[in-house]
Amino acid sequence: MKMTFRWFGETNDSISLQHIKQIPGVEGIVWALHDVPVGEEWPLEKIQEVKQQADQSGLSIDVVESVNVHEDIKLGLNTRDQYIENYKQTIEKLASVGVKVICYNFMPVFDWFRSDLNEPLHDGSHALFYDKAKVEDINPLEIVRKNSDELDFKMPGWEPERLADLAHLFEAYQDIKEEDLWENLSYFLQEIIPVAEAHDIQMAIHPDDPPWSIFGLPRIITNAENIRRLLSIVDSSYHGITLCSGSLGANPLNHVGDMVREFADRIPFAHIRNVKVYENGSFIETSHRTEDGSVDIYDIVKAYHEAGFTGYVRPDHGRHLWDEVCRPGYGLYDRALGIMYLWGIWDSLVRSEK
Ligand SMILES: [Mn+2]
Hints:
Blueprint: E1 2-6, H1 17-21, E2 26-31, H2 44-56, E3 60-65, H3 71-75, H4 80-96, E4 101-104, E5 116-120, E6 126-130, H5 132-137, H6 140-148, H7 160-164, H8 166-172, H9 178-198, E7 202-205, H10 224-233, E8 239-244, H11 245-249, H12 256-263, E9 269-272, E10 275-277, E11 283-285, H13 297-306, E12 312-315, H14 333-353
Parallel strand pairs: 1-2, 1-12, 2-3, 3-4, 4-7, 7-8, 8-9, 9-12
Antiparallel strand pairs: 5-6, 6-11, 10-11
Helix pairs in contact: 4-9, 12-13, 13-14
The structure holds manganese (II) ion (MN).
Residues 206, 244, 246-247, 271, 316 line the site of manganese (II) ion.
């Protein structure tokens, strides 16, 4: 496996490339142009700038996360074709600097979703928390207000113009059911995958986080059965998944290790992290260690090892430790600890083979 680390950019991250380079075994960054509005074509000069920065630190730029999909594509509007055309152009440009994997998702309106970004754990660290009852109880428009008041809800990656448009977006999704979303995803894939294939870039869809419908919005990349359906839409090794153990693992019915075993040859990119799921359906992010959460991280790494996995891996989110000031979920310390845990399991599996 090739170890990577998510980096938000020189002026957009509390962590430097030099620090990332010092984590054992990290070969590359997982990056994106976070200031390009969703749907627009990525400018080549800005792509090359990141490539240069990474080169100087001896890190690869093979994995991009994410090239986000415009809502009009997910809604299946007539305007989608222009956005799909822009997407294709971005694929072509990313290929020109050597990008190998593009992570994306197909979640309506919200990307990953939590009720609290700084929930205390028993050890005094803090982590992202999903309070199920709280989310079920709240009107999403209220979240916007709370967000702007810097209270309970903050959503990194939410552009202000998108927040302002939230009421309109919800209206637009009113008639979009799961089957409509499948149809719109299928249209997108049939357009995109041949282009990705021609440019030797693997598309890797991220599962829905959490893996169930929120606020009545449809969500479809949620379990093994739906991943099977997803992969059958286009039969190509360039159409794969970003298998995220924490997203799928928030539903105790999902056995992530078995998903690795079943889908291994369609997983170019793995997110590995743990969550502790409570009986009431709420969950909190924990350290990567199997014993600390509800997801069997050992079994997942073992499944990758058995599959001879040569794809990219990154520790997903981490807790906020030792008073670190960082982007929620994306501190240096806990993700670096997570990497060492993953290497510990991996290296011992490799040695025990010999
Ligand atoms: Mn993830």
